[in-house]
Amino acid sequence: MPEPRRFVIIAAPHTSNWDFLYFLGLTTDLGVKAHFMAKTSLFRWPLGRFMRDMGGVPVERSYNRGQVQQMVEEFSRRDEFMLTIAPEGTRGSVRQWRTGFYQIALAARVPLVCGLMDYGRKVGGLGPAIMPTGDYAEDMKKIMEYYSSVTPRHPERAGNEIIEASQIWDSQSKDSYL
């Protein structure tokens, strides 16, 4: 567990609703109070308290302050903050990961911690901490090396074209992903 306990947990591969339930149990066993982002409307009555108790952090999506900046500000307010993000952005089939998880860690100057649910070996856990350097392609090579042996619950839904995301990252401004 990296110290200080301020980092972005990469929740991958995320191909099933079971991933979330198993991950909650796993983080509890590891003593990790994991947080996640959710739209502000989910934090109103009657779900508000439940969402916060589960580790939810509301993000406002209706104005120009991007989600990345909101999470960077959240990191700056807290001494301990472990933000879990599924880079696929969905449980469905994807070609590439979204890059918000990387942008948040880079801007907040916190490491990325590889989290996993390996259904092939029936294990879950936290892997290495990787400090983002700003070279997305190189950092993703390290991350994907770790995930290369992980079997998702639904392998056909896993994003295998991760390097393609680095080409998009290089060809567009970072702000276009916010």
Automatic annotation (TrEMBL):
SUPFAM superfamilies: Glycerol-3-phosphate (1)-acyltransferase
Record's keyword terms, sorted: Acyltransferase, Transferase
A Pfam family this chain is assigned to: Acyltransferase
SMART domains: PlsC
Region forming the signal peptide: none
UniProt-recorded Gene Ontology molecular function terms: acyltransferase activity
Protein name: 1-acyl-sn-glycerol-3-phosphate acyltransferase
Organism annotation: Blastomonas aquatica
Taxonomy of the source species: Bacteria, Pseudomonadati, Pseudomonadota, Alphaproteobacteria, Sphingomonadales
